[in-house]
């Protein structure tokens, strides 16, 4: 059950980086690459990359219900599907670890701590964290696997 260990590593990496973000970045911003990348403490009440942050109380309740459902669904899926491909196991482990990392913040703090901040000129990407990256990368791996499988099926049919 290495996937549980890997999800735990993602969760711990998220917790550790958020601890340091709070300890060293609260009220500050550290410019890493001027005009492009900085580390900054930010609080997010919405979803990944601050989506739905303006929905106030609704988003908090919604995500406090949705995230545990997703976590349980992933665990059940792992238990029922023993023959998953490595890429599926990796992707689901990333999503599981990231989801639990942000769920922890929502339960304990009522918001998610973000600290990675990219901008280019007037364009600014919302701040994010390790958990967000894990969920995003895991989702990309799942989607790419799905589309690769379907493109192979389509080429066999034609």
3D architecture notes:
The chain has 158 residues and is of the alpha+beta class. 64% of the residues lie in helices and 15% in strands. The protein has one domain (41-157). The protein contains 4 helices and 4 strands, in the order αββααββα. The chain has a 4-stranded antiparallel β-sheet. The termini are far apart. The mean pLDDT is 87.
What keywords describe this structure?
158 residues; alpha+beta; four-stranded antiparallel beta sheet; 4 strands; 15% strand; globular
Compose a concise summary of this entry.
This protein has helices spanning about 1-25, 55-80, 85-110, 130-155, and strands spanning about 30-35, 35-45, 110-120, 125. With about 160 residues, the protein is an alpha+beta fold. α1 (about 1-25) packs across α3 (about 85-110), α2 runs antiparallel to α3 and α3 runs antiparallel to α4 (about 130-155).
């Amino acid at each position: 059950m290495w996937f549980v260990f890997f999800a735990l590593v993602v969760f711990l990496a998220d917790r550790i980086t958020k601890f340091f973000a709070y300890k060293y970045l609260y009220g500050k911003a550290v410019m890493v690459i001027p005009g492009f990348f900085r580390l900054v403490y930010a609080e997010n009440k919405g979803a990944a990359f601050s989506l739905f942050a303006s929905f106030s109380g609704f988003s908090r309740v919604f995500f406090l219900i949705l995230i545990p459902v997703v976590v349980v669904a992933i665990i059940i899926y792992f238990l029922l599907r023993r023959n998953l491909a490595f890429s599926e196991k990796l992707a689901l482990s990333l999503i599981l670890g990231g989801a639990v990392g942000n769920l922890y913040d929502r339960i304990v703090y009522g918001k998610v701590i973000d600290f990675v901040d990219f901008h280019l000129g007037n364009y600014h990407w919302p701040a994010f964290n390790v958990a967000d990256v894990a969920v995003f990368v895991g989702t990309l791996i799942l989607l790419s696997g799905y589309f690769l499988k379907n493109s192979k099926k389509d080429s066999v049919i034609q």
